[in-house]
Every structure is written in structure tokens, then in C-alpha cells.
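Record type: monomer structure entry
Structure origin: computed from sequence
Chain ID: A
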Amino acid sequence: MKKIVISTIFVVILTFIITSYTNAENIKSNVDLEKAIVSSVKVTNNGNRYIAFYEDINGGTNTEVLVYLWGPDFSSTGGDTLLIFSEDNEEYSFISKTTIVNMPIIISNSKTNGFNDIIVYVTGGGVKNGFHTVLKNQDGRYPLNPSVQPKVDLDKIHVKKMINVNINQTVGEELKL
């Protein structure tokens, strides 16, 4: 219990110290990105929403886009979905999909195969005690299921960027089919 409280306090402090996304500052509708989302994953229902965060996570010349999606096609009792694309002149190339993701999303300074490691929070869906886990890029993709990835101690993470948005039906953009 003491370790959970200390880790939670650590995350809260990091939110104020580190450059982070905490509100709508990086949210914008993007028809080309929406087309890339719909062509990369199965979307069958209305009522899905997304937030896109533009961040260089591989030190390359193109910006990557972390797209957090929620709604009927992207949410479960364990969390929501994270898609990652590479963006070049508003053309988007799919990199990976990770399910059962919860905020905050932490981009670490540590890298695996040239990509920043990503830390997500795993809870719900049968997980009784939530935990943070690290997603490491393997074969050009991040893992699909974070619940089977290694747990990580937040006190040992060197944070590059933290994404922590209160997800609800008034945030983000509607994903149009």
C-alpha cells in the first residue's frame, strides 16, 4: 500500500514538472488521420472518439502520432486502445496497436530498437491490483497486450513526456466512419 501511494505521488509530481499533455492543447480534428485509423483497424460502430498526440518517439525526421481511442470498438473493461502512426506531410503509416491501455501514458527516455519505451497503466478486466508496464518496440511494433509485459517501477523511469487526459465523451474528436 505504501509503495502504491508513493508511486502515485511520484506520478502527480511528474505531471507538473515534465512537459506533458493534460488537456485539449494537442487535440485537433484531422480527416487524413481518421482515414488512416479506419483503414488500419476494424471500425463498425458510431460513438468512437480519439485524441492524437504528435511526438517524435524514434529520433527520426518524421513525427509519430499516438492516437488514444475509446468507444464501442476500442474500449473494454480493461481499458482503451492506443494506435501509433508515423506522419510525413499529413500521410500516415501504421506502426502498431496496443489494447487495454489507460491514462497516463508515459514516454520514457529509454529506447528499444530506436523507439522510446512507452509506459501504460494496466487495470480492470480481471486485474485486481493495477500496475504500470513498459512497452518496448520489437520488430517495428509495440506489443498488443500490455498486461503480459514486464511491470515497471515508476521511480526508475526517466520521463520524456507524460500524456494524462481525463477521458470522457466531451473530450477529443468523434471518429467518423
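Annotation 1: The first strand starts at residue 20 and ends at 21.
Annotation 2: The radius of gyration is 15 Å.
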